[in-house]
Give the backbone structure.
Amino acid sequence: MSLRCHFDADGWLQGPIKIAHTLTPNHNGGFGTGRGVVMHTEAGFEQGTFSTFMNKDNQVSAFFSIGRDGSCHQYVPVGKGLKAWSQAAGNDAWRGIEDEDERNPAIPLTPAQVRAFAQILEACSTFDGFPLKITDDVNGQGLILHSDGGQAWGGHLQCPGHVRAAQRPAIVALAMAIRHGDAAQPGGPHRHTAPGGQTLAQIAAARNTTAEHLADVTARAYTPADVTVLAHLPLPAGAPYYTSNP
């Protein structure tokens, strides 16, 4: 089963993603050609973000938001010339995605959030025609940060913060994998064995993904048999490992 999503005739995202469609009152016309997607952080919780966007007195919204569990909301349909109100002067050409952070933007996006973000990014890229790449130029195309817009985009110079900003390469790589059908499927994870002589980065590149993504999937999928194999493999100098106590 593919992880790829699409927009229906009414402009709502459909596919293998947990998403609710609720039109916010905080929108207007004037959206032009989509340049890309803006990464935001909620500075709060998904339910609070939803309530904020549903209140017309708040005069704020976004196209999408993603909870820590990967569940999503879409607040404005695409293809109808409508703008969400998420980054001021950037509203007419960029689609904002808010990400739950439980009031702590220093925590990274969860694997579920990364996956949902990549699915939305890939669908928006297909719909709007912008490339799957990172940009920090408001006149460019791709995946941009809210802070990149400076004062013209509302002056949120710490949004989404450096921790989440550093996850953009993994999101873009996963979006590419989704487009090419190489992303982890719901029936997975799928077990492989290393051929030897390759780094994790090399293996990831050959699969059109990232080392971070492979490490995350692998760590969550290890079986007792896998641990037995690893326990008898010599670790190269400098290889990290973790303990519960110092």
